[in-house]
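**Fold in tokens:**
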Amino acid sequence: MSSSILRKPLLMILLLALGGCVLAPGMKRSDDKQSDLDLPIMKDGHLATGKVPVVPLTAQLIVERENATRQAIAVPKPEEAMQDGGYRIGPHDRLLVTVWEHPELNDPGAEKIAPDQAGKVVDDDGTLYYPYVGKLAVGGKTVAEVRDQLTRQLSHYFKNVKLDVRVISFLSRRVYVVGEVKSPGIQSMVDNRLTIAEAISRAGGSTPESDLSHITLSREGRTYPVDLMALYEQGSGGENIFLKEGDVLNIPDRHENQVFLMGEIKQQALQMNKGRLSLAQALAEASGVNFDTSNPEDIYVIRAAQAQPEIFHLDGESPDAMVLADRFKLQPHDVVYIGSAGVTRWSRAMNQLIPSTVGQFMTRGAFYGF
């Protein structure tokens, strides 16, 4: 009698446990359309919370993403601060004026003066003071224009004036090169047009730890991504952008470019080689994949390191899906999650339920001999 009484509740508990496995907490279905949890997202320019769509990883999605990348908003071209005729002088530039046969007009002991101390500095209003002439407006003019202007002014006091003007310190137009370069700091724009590659070269070149695929260019309150590696490897001239006064060029550390693997796999971080890694490469390079417990239908890529998080789902049961995975390019800080098989979830749920509930009945049943 006592054994019969124990069998009934035990059977009911087992049935409930089996049914509960279908909706065990934390389970993911491959047909989910939204994230389970609210995530931080941007709404109307403000940080808020909300569900994130789970987007199927299809050929159409890859085509749309690659086309969007090619048609991305380009960095606006800087207005030409220097017109035809060469460099336009600006505030803080240092000019050296040499007047032949009139040494009193030249810097005394000029040959012994350090270059950064020689000459005359252009004031903030674009003028400089010169003997006999007084204030001379030079801002926005070329060297040739200043030479002609100064010759005319001095001709009122001297005959057959012969002089030369040259810029010995270019400080009016500067860009900033920071990050993984050998000599980070200010670079003067001494030429008519300065490109990103030239600015990096002037900064001593990139370091071995640099990532030239994810350079950022900050200009007038906006930040633009630049893939300079495309220029070096593919000759893509569109990436060798002309810089503008005040630009900030940041060359990041390549060690920041990692993707993370989680789920039915050994949790690990994979380094992106030259800033590139496809989903197929990540899966192939991963170690510790549990083929007995993983579910190839549930492969997810969680892209949370941006203003609008994204979740992509790949059904990898078919070998053809690996073609899509090879064309899907990962981004730094992406999380690749491999789901568990249904039998694995069932087993784990049972392992949680049986010891805490059924186990005590089994012990009592053994005591009563059934």
